Amino acid sequence: MINTVHVGIGPIGQKMVRYAVGRGCFNIVGAVDPDPDKAGKELGELCGINPLGITVSSNLDEAIKGETPEVAIATTVSSVVAFESQIVELAKAKLHIVSTCEELFYPWNTQPEVSSRIDEICRENGVVCLGTGVNPGYLMDFLPTVLTAPSQNVKKVEVWRVQDASVRRIPFQQKIGAGLSLEEFEVKRKSGTLRHVGLPESVDFIARDLVGSSIRIPKLLSRLLPAKILIPGTNRFLKAWPVGCIRWAGVLLVIRKLLL
Fold first, then answer.
1. In the chain, where the domains are located
2. What is the pLDDT along the chain (260 residues), one digit of tens a residue?
């Protein structure tokens, strides 16, 4: 079995713990979350399963003291810039890193300097750092790339993903602007805080695999639009609205990659 330490026990982190236990091939030896509402609690009970005999620690050193973890499962942030310091700490602890950080999936074009530093620290410590997930990491990048394998000449790759944010976790709804008025949506759009995190990295990944080193001047053209629905009463969004009230349900982000 693979000894793991779980870093970040939020909604996604809790699912990862449940999946790891269900798979039966992972041995969880520690868990980390600095949130006072989580640190000190029993991991299994916090994740809605039977007790695991592991107390959530507020820091990594405490979580792995006396243990021999091999891999850190990190489910903390979406930004690779914000995640860099955590990667350094995990790499220096000689832990391989698997993370759901969206921008970590393929950050070489969007964050080249950060990518180089992460690559360097991981090589120095002999560990692997992998950003992955359903998306980015599979659905809109790896899968369409693999599906081109039987083709000798690929002229276009088009990927559409449509999902209902009302059944997703609250942090995800906030990330895409679900429940905002049009005015609130525009403010966040203009500030750059409202976007499909990881989508540019998916596009870069596809372009690299299909065109490779022949890419000279990659450009991304993106357009962010609000997606609206007519809400018939209350639902599972951030708040309840009157019958017939129109609110913005999320984003429609279209990105095209130009290979010049």
1. 2-131, 154-259
2. 999 999 999 999 999 999 999 999 999 999 999 999 999 999 999 999 999 999 999 999 999 999 999 999 999 999 999 999 999 999 999 999 999 999 999 999 999 999 999 999 999 999 999 999 988 999 999 999 999 889 888 888 888 877 776 677 777 777 677 777 777 777 877 777 776 778 889 988 988 877 654 444 345 555 555 655 544 444 444 443 333 333 444 544 454 554 44
CATH class of 2-131: alpha beta
Q: b/e string for 108-137 if b means 16 or more Cβ within 10 A? A: ebbbeebbeebeebbeebebebebbbebbb
